[in-house]
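so i finally got all the pieces together for this one. its three components total, 1497 residues if u count the protein bits. some of the lines might not be protein, just check the labels. i wanna see the whole assembly predicted at once instead of chain by chain like last time, that was a mess tbh
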Amino acid sequence: MNHIVNDMVVRFANVNGTGSASANNLFAKAVFRMGIPVSPKNIFPSNIQGLPTWFEIRINDKGYLGRRDGIDLLVAVNPQSFDKDVKSVRSGGYLVYDSTKKLHAEQIREDINYIGIPMMRLCMEHYQNPRQQQLFKNIVYVGALATLLDMEIEVIENMIKEQFKNKQKLIPSNIQALELGINYVKEHYELLPYRLERRDMVGDHILIEGNAATALGCVYGGATVAAWYPITPSTSVALSFDKFAHQLRMDSDTNKKKFAIVQAEDELAAIGMVIGASWNGARAFTSTSGPGVSLMNEFIGLAYYAEIPVVLINVQRGGPSTGMPTRTQQADVLSSAYASHGDTKHVLLFPSTPAECFELTADAFDLADRLQTPIIVMSDLDLGMNVHMSPPLKWDDNRKYDLGKVLNRQELDELEHFGRYRDVDNDGIGYRTVPGTHPKKGSFFTRGTSRDEDAKYTEDGDTYVRVVNRILKKWDTAKDLVPGPEFSSKNDHPNGIIYFGTTNYAAMEAVELLEAKGIKVDAMRIKAFPFNQEVEDFINQHERLFVIEQNRDAQMRAVFMNELDTNPQKLVPILNYDGMPITANNIFNQISQLIPVSV
Amino acid sequence: MSYIRPVFRHPELAKNAIGYSRKDYEGAISTLCAGCGHDSISGAIVQACYEMSIEPHKIAKVSGIGCSSKTPTYFLGNSHGFNSVHGRMPSVTTGAYMANRDLKYIGISGDGDTASIGMGQFVHAIRRNLNMMYIVMNNGCYGLTKGQESATADKGSLTKSGSETKYPGIDLVGLALELNATFVARSFSGDKTQLIPLIKAAMSHPGFALLDVLSPCVTFNNNKGSTKSYTYIRDYIEATGTVDFVPKEEEITVEYEEGKSTSVQLHDGSTIKLSKLNPNWNPTDKLSAFNRVQEAKMKGEVLTGLIYIDPESQDLHDVMGTVQTPLNTLREDQLNPGMEALERINQSFR
Amino acid sequence: MINWESNVFPGILGRTCDRPCEPACRRGRVEEKPVAICRLKRVAADNKGEVKSLMPRAPKEKNGKKIALIGGGPASLTVARDLAPLGYELHLFDEWHKGGGMMRTQIPAFRLPEEVLDEEVNYVLDMGVITHFNHYVSSMKEVLDQDYDAIFVGTGAPRGRDLKITGREEAAKNIHIGIEFLANVAFEHRDKIGRKVIILGGGNTAMDCCRTSRRLGGDDVKVVVRSPFKDMKASPWEIEDAMAEDIPILNNMPPKEFVVEDGKLKGVIFGKVRAEYDENGRRKLIPTGEPDEFIEADDVIIAIGQDNAFPWIERDLGIEFGKWDIPVLNETTFQSTNPKVFFGGDAAFGPENIITAAAHGHQAAISIHHFCQGLDLMDRPAPGANLVRQKMGIHEWMYDNDIAADLRYKVPHEDKVITLTNRKIEVELGFSVSTAFKEAQRCLNCDVQTVFTDSLCIECDACVDICPTSCITFTMNGEEEDLRQRLNAPASNLTQDLYVSDTLPTKRVMIKDEDVCLHCGLCAERCPTAAWDMQKYLYNVTKASKIL
């Protein structure tokens, strides 16, 4: 019998609020610790307790970490979703279920394999406390699953010991639950044809949520003021910032905070606070999601026009309106790029991994200060709330913050004339001053109304045009400051694909799937808006470009058309917007239908 | 030409303790209507800051949108100002205060900017006891959009066109008391003798200081029948007491009548002296403040003066536990934990 | 014409006036220098259009009264200008061949070109004045004996003081009296002077003498004054102009002796002194004990003052004279103790200046007119005055209320390499029209009054808040001394009255200290009820005839 080693999709179907998440993560991380690349995804409801939730882990030796269709192994412990869950297993796959109660006839499929483990019974027999009974049921199935897949049990045991390092008395009961599962399987089942074997494929990688990495980017980027309003899926950015700042940012002498976090009354207030803090010379950020960005629109326009640095983390979720709050999408491209009324456009950064969340967020503070404008980091729910295997986070200790053009007291003294919005260096960026710098020079009135180069209110048409055109000049300056695209192959083929953010995982895999079918494409990953010359060249040099995005309206394609004047015929949208992370197969199928296989 | 102000000032103008003259605290020339109460409040701010000898650049001015919010252009020209968006001044000020706790913050708002569109942010600024002076230039109407009645217009008050206000007005003073504001006062733009010491006290108070200043709109709400007109306010004005502000360095020289005066010591060492008090009112007793406000309301008085002060008010940064150094002055060496710490974090994710 | 109406000699005075008005200019209260009123009058005069046709004319039909005007200077000419339109027959006597008096004899052409002088003198003479030039009146009695209805004496202060010290007689050939020297130059009786010249004296005549000397061959010209530099009588700008022509001014050096060798002047010996002032400010010059100083000189010009001199007026004509040979006059009417005889100009109260002479002339003309018509001389018509509202729109005024911050502009000068070669080349070029406009914008508009109507005031404080110079205060009324202390800005100029309103509804009063009011009109602009108004005030000094 052929074993399938280290290549499978395992899904857990749970009830939320039952402690399943930590058990599922335990399993995923154990795989990771065996040196095997994993990609867990939490598919959860907008609810705290009682609704179905799924946890899906792709395990892949080759390092493909995008979602893959077809569930090889399903642990189904939610009676509410059970019937639907049974149907989701691929033909020939395995279903692990709680066999305390018998299955109904209609729940039995001929084409899949059933592995019954009497989880409830085992727990009822061994634990008295109802809460424990419920919690350990999860550990029981982890033990069972680990055994079925021939995992290194001690990896899991060690993790349990690590987890309860400070609550030693919980260790034996957990180990016991694990063993209940192990032993039951050993007694009743053979190993599955799916196996997990130790590899050395993860190197020094880490397994981290994008939001945690983003929060670390804020700490390392020098943010001192954070203002936020709770909203899924961005909440953990602020909470992680709070956690890491408490670890890394306490004054050693006084034990006082070198940061301030305000949980605002709403998103409007949150960004207002960021603008106030940035205006006052601190690095500040807010994190939110699409609905929050909608609320922030007025202030984003103010920051754009009054030229105040802002770092805004947009962890996108499914829209429109409240939409699918716990599902992922890349559907805020247009609403972020052109947020607010009047002529505006904003610098967007598109991280695709936690390492990039860290890096681009830290960069965002430099860019915001340099360009004196809002910088929006476009994460998404998949990236932000799921753990991803990521290269370790890196920081160059010699790196200095680029605080941009801020005049200090001495510089003001030496200056003959200060005009806040004068384009002294011909890069579209004026010099700013921070309140409290100088008693007689450099004060000005920041406003959202039109003003001249010296920050004086004016409604003069010529002056207005001069000022807004100068702000547009910053846009050109920005093109050379933002990170350029990443190419996996370039200029060889008439067809190219373009993608960004978390689509990365599926797109990379799709390129190989296509290649295996003889379809060769060049690939470019956009890391930022505005687009630099390389992006333009790539688009000009290809006959046809497949623009892969996770939204309905092909928003990035629209931005290309809008900004680069690209012929729409040339840009073929490849879309997925069901709220689940896009899969490689989906991309492959859509593209391969459009390109005849060349021999 | 009221769009140009001559550069000359009185050659014998005095200088304050730090060598600045009144001119150093002036702003650009006002573009509000002639006789607007707001301009008097601007004048009072200039005078108060001059007399308090605060360096102009140590003050930041923040406002929302509306006639009131235009005024920060018209005072303290050597201070940075921020004319933000409608009703959002408190959040901008909160952020600014987070960034630099060493500046004094003057927030200017109007009745529309505070009691309608900005009500949410207003109450939360009070809730956090944000260290700022929050002035509402309250004229009971929307001046900049030509005179619509506002949420602070009193029920029964007549508009310029003669129609009657149908809904009860929101009393910002009563609201602030209810929200545990630590400094609550009301004044009148036409009474600088009272307004200037109140501004000084508000700026010295370590917490949220509300100054609800009745400020008649000469163009749209100074008509007969309006309860926010110069005449009406003068006819019905009633003060809680006479206010004097004595800075830390100065000695109290005025004699106050025994039993009819009281003083409140502020954190920075300065003192608010109150005299000619109403016998049933104590500025540090919230219950008596509530009662006094209600009593005035029932009598139809326009109650002005200091209404409540909590001398134990605690600065927001102290509540939050932030460092004394303003956060905006911290640089890489104080902010960045470095690669070594990051590697420890990485390790925790393996 | 406005420029000419009261001033009579705007082109002349715009170049030569002593500027008694400028120290009064309130611009000098808010910064160092007042508005250049004098030089602005010159620009206005230089750039006027055709005015001759606008001038009043003498009626063909005379009124039968005959007036003698003795002396052809500014006082007599003013009297003539004011009386001519009323039909008087005017006879003007002067010892020189042209009119103008001291304006012609004592003011060098490089300060006052002859064309300008002629033009403005002729405006008057052309009004049918019968001139008797080259006619030195040597006897008042003779004049009185003729059939004149009134006589006006405007003969100036024609005698230059001399300095009787050792050597004066011996060196008489090379020692000159200032005003005589200037007159001789003016009438081209003299066109040379020695290489080394010493001018004694520190008044304007001394300045004119030294600068004239520079143009007649004096290349080592010095002014020596006995007192300290700061006590010099000459106008500061005259001193400045002299020094700009490389003329040193040596001070604290009283002359002791003219040194003569071989009958020829060699120089002057000066003592050295310092000034001390007693508690009354009286000055004493105390010798310092330093050795005397000898300064070489080919010529010396004595310009140490002028005296009145009326040797031609017999003392038995009922015209009384007082101290220093000055006639006894009624100070309002300028009438002497002989009712037919009137005095004006320097002849009246001693040396003053041209504009004072013109002022005297206006008053004397009224007196003469009343005298001839049998009216009471003391019953004089009041000066013309009116107030006119200036408001146009929200912030538009009929007057220029934008007070320029510019410092006083300097009048450009011709290059001295050119001017020193020819005494007739005018040194001052005058303001260009555009510079003059800018200079005029410095004016604080004293002619526009802030008028307060207390019944309109709603006490909104708008005027107090806007006033750039903190002039306005609302406070409880009180005694003036106390009020002056309680104002928003100190009112320490006691010569400036406070403007106090009636009691207002809040029991307070409005008090305005006019001292440094800029008349910018901002109080009136910010006033919602027009309680403040800006009203233009026109003052027109009374003249015998209506000119405009």
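Chain C touches chain B at residues 29-31, 394-397, 401-403, 405, 458-462, 464-466, 468-471, 489-490, 492, 505-506, 516, 518, 520-522, 525-529 (CB under 8 Å).
The two ends of chain C are 8 Å apart (CA to CA).
anyway lmk what u think
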